[in-house]
Amino acid sequence: MPNPGACACLGRVLEVLSGVRDFTEKARARFKGFAASGGMGRSFRRMPLLPRLFLRLIACLVVAAGLRGAVADPSAIHVVVSHSADEFAGWPANEGCWAWGDEILVGYTVGRYVDRGEKHSLDPEGPQTLAFSRSTDGGRTWTREHETDARAFRAAPAPAPSAPPDLGSPDVALKFRYNVWHHSADRGRTWSGPFRLPDFDAAHLIARTNYIVADRDSALVFLTASDRGADASTGGGRSFVARMSDGGSRFEFLSWIGPDLARGLATDERPIFSTMPSAIRTGEGRYLCALRQRIGRRKWTDIFESVDGGKTWSHLGELERGATNPAALVSLGGERVAAVYGSRKKPFGLRAKISENAGRDWSDEILLRTDGRTWDLGYPRAVRRPDGTVVVLYYYTTAGRPEQHIAATLWRPPPAAR
User: H-type helices in 144-264, by residue range?
Assistant: First the structure.
């Protein structure tokens, strides 16, 4: 029989070594300017191999010790939104989240739960439904509402609505998915549609619900186009912003958000995508957008800003690296912004960062949850209640509830430093 002590030792070594890559990336980013000027980075590269490995091992021990001692924010309250022992429920970022004060609605995909190891625990051959859950008390309790076949909900779209939505109404909601959209006049209790989105000269649209109402007649809609397939994760995808006007009878392409990641790339790494935009308004004509980025095995989140109403975008910097999950931005008032994202690297869970200057700089990671059972979680959307509490909606799995389910975290961000 294997020696238990030896197995534990080997496991510890593997745990430490698994941090080498993350530490190297963090160190490279932190000392990038110094190394470029011929400082410590160049000296480190000139070291013999064994001393370099030793220094990396020491650094990784520090990182691993920090992860072992990491404790989730005790003030965060976690609530089960929807769970069933035979059901997979997931991906709120795909289907949308809306808020009217303390009333919150979230959409998500439901299918049969099957443990498939390293793949999503969703039966790919079984039926999938679109479900909605609603809270009327700020996310403390939830009621599951109507469900419909996900494909039927998008089938046979009309060109445009005969009765356009009044975007100035406080009860209106819009929903975008793939190449169609819907609207509701009663806070998502009933939906009109589907209506066809223009193709914007793209082979495929991979729309998810992210829009910002401008006035009673128009809104900015954040979408993703792909020339490789309807699923950006298997091919390509590039995000852009369009203006919807005349109650949805007109859509105008405004601009790409960020550069084409595939242009000028020397390698044939796949997949390559820049997708899942999460945008918020930070001022008059000013918008902030987070994009999920990937080139092969490199995965990160970038932050972009527009100061001219979405016509052009500039890159502010990188939010995080390696979470393998889309980020959700939420305004905390003024230039204060929070970003929330699932973590598909250990410890599996939910994390956040705060910016005090509209996305130019970000705090260290705040651990909201660290009890995730596997990597198959996240895809959050977030809203802010009138009392300042942030409500994060996402899918999750724990040892006690292994089936992927919809959860909510009620989080009071720490006050701004004075």
Answer: 150-154
